Amino acid sequence: MGLLDGIFDTTSEGKMARKLGVSKDEINEMFSEFDTDGSGSIDSEELRAFAASIGIYWEPEEAAEAVRNLDADGNGTVEIGEFAAWFVQENRDYSGSSDLKKKLQIQLALRQVSKVLQTIKEAGTGRACTNTASINIGEPIDTDSCRGHVGVFVSGSNSEEFAAMNPPESAKMCAYADYTLKAGASDADIATIVDGANQLFETMGQPMLDMLPPADELCPPGLSLGSGSVFDSYRIGKETVDGVDVLRAVVFTGMDPSVLLNGCEIGDFLPTFSANLYCKFAISDMFDVSGPCTLAQTHTGRVDYNFVWNTKALKAAGAFCKSKLFKKTFEDKLFGKVEEAAMGFAAIFRVFKGQNSMFELNFKGYQPAFEAAAETAMKAYVQKQEEMHGYYGEGEFKEEDAFPFGKPTPDVMNAVIAAVGGISGKTFGNIRKEILELGPIIPLDSCGSMCTPLYFLKQMIEGIPDEGPMSTAKAMGWAALATISGFKASGFQGQIVKAGLKARGMDAVSLLPTREQIEAAECSLCVLEGSDDHRGNVAATTTWVVEHANIWIKISGQEVKAALASGDLGDISEISNFPAELTSSGFQNLTCTEEELAALRGKYSELIAVAQAAKPFVDNLPSAIEAAECTWQGTPLGRAGIPSATRHYALQRYNTLLALN
């Protein structure tokens, strides 16, 4: 008869062991973890060392007291029989040794769980249950080749998937971020980013590592994430991921959750969830002057939700709940319902074969959606106006009262919606290009300084010190601007679970101005020649703007000149504070040729198409304003402010400039 047979077969402790579901082999295994020198007994130093490994830190006197509590024969050490009797008996007030027993029981329960999982995994039982919900908007989309995609995912993992991250031997988990590279990204710029990251880590990151808590403090009592450190290492550099070159930054930790389950890989038992949004175009396509992407097409896409789980997870859950030690250890945390849960899982697994579902919705796309939205908004507006009429109006409310200048017809509204949907990267790209190329005509201060749009950014960058961490960050920023086009992925990768965000076409960084454009930004002081007044004045500003006029300023000057000549602005001498500079020879000389106008109309033909669609409503505005019976502060709107001739002249010029028919 073995040393433990008497305890497990004949004594009250044996009954308790069987009640806990603890075997002699498990007791031997735990005892050997204490008995590091293999002497067959545990002394106070061995007990203290093992207790520290699971988060219990004793002074030498406390460890000696714990040994005395376990040492039934008083020889100063704990033999396996004494250890077994102590482990299986009901908890008593043994000071720290009672806490030690609770933590050991938790560890043993988790070991039993890992054995159950390994057995089920090796049996290969279970069936995948797939649930999918999809929403399609507009035309069908090829999810594999479309340029735009954003997705999130959570799923089980394993050691092979973690090994694909090329981790150092001591690492067990990591967090990463990937950024797509521009075509022709130089190795020198990438090296600048890598070197800068290393410098910032040494000066700022390394000193902060001492502030990180020990791994044991991040674990619940009785559990351990191994002997690795919270921060293990990091890596940054150019790598190839899924056939695409990216700039990858990854941080590794030595904490190992798989230790909790004795190294058992449980990724197969965890469900998988993913949500994905697909669209035809990348962000940069909306600013491509070749116009591949319209606003209407941005409302074409697909959303997929996927949830996959395996029926063997039910079997594993039932096995956990039937484990005697698991029930004993965790029943207080599960409100005493472990037995009922075990019965429920067992019954479900016995009759449940599997489950799959698919749900799909299809919508027509941009035009029907916005037509319906416009109709709903119009009805809501009329209802609100009727409510306001009930408070402040007189007489019976009629729908036309809500539209004093006329109501656009459904045909006009639908035509405007279609025209707006036709606005593409051609328009947005040209607007972006004009902003970046705009000359120094933006007032910077009250002293007459005029600058280009990017000068504010240039000023901020020039204010960064030439030495220290900020200088390093500046160099990294310039290199990143030349190297990175956008975001590709970020996430967490371990040996049990992985989660993250992945994207395609998130290339907004490529739309930022280049270093050359920023550094070329300028600022000038506009003052009259020979003047000592450096505060500037209207005349000097007008002269400067005329000399640096772009196409929009030329058109504005030409139209003001034509309006003054026609007399449709009235007698300007009667207009208070009318800037005399607008009648100056310099301003009067602003002209725009028909060729320049034609080129501008070509660049912004999509916006002109919107104006053309709205023309039936706009053409009627001057007459509708004059005929309006509603008043503002007692004055009929038809007679307020602007003369009738001026309104008709403005409409005529509007149609002429846009070449509306």
If you had to describe this structure to a student in words, what would you say it looks like?
By secondary structure, the protein is α+β, with helices and mostly antiparallel strands. The chain has a domain at 5-123: EF-hand (Recoverin, domain 1), CATH 1.10.238.10. The chain contains 25 helices and 17 strands. The strands form 4 sheets. It has a 10-stranded mixed beta sheet with strand order 6-7-5-13-14-4-8-9-3-10. Helix 7 (96-123) packs across helix 11, helix 10 runs antiparallel to helix 12 (338-351) and helix 13 (366-392) crosses helix 14 (410-421). 25% of the residues are buried. Residues 528-532 have low confidence and may be disordered.
Mean pLDDT: 80
Structural class comes to alpha+beta
Biggest sheet character: 10 strands, mixed
Work out the radius of gyration: 38 Å
Euclidean distance between termini CA atoms: 109 Å
Quaternary organisation? single chain
The CATH superfamily of the domain at 5-123 turns out to be EF-hand
How many beta strands in the DSSP annotation? 17
What fraction, in percent, of the residue positions are helical? 40-55%
**Which overall shape is indicated by the principal axes computed on the Cα atoms?**
elongated
Q: What fraction of the residues are assigned to beta strands by DSSP?
A: 15-25%
CATH topology grouping of the domain at 5-123:
Recoverin, domain 1
Low-confidence residue ranges:
528-532
The helix count comes to 25
Q: What is the C-level CATH assignment of the domain at 5-123?
A: Mainly Alpha
CATH architecture descriptor text of the domain at 5-123: Orthogonal Bundle
Strand order of the largest sheet: 6-7-5-13-14-4-8-9-3-10
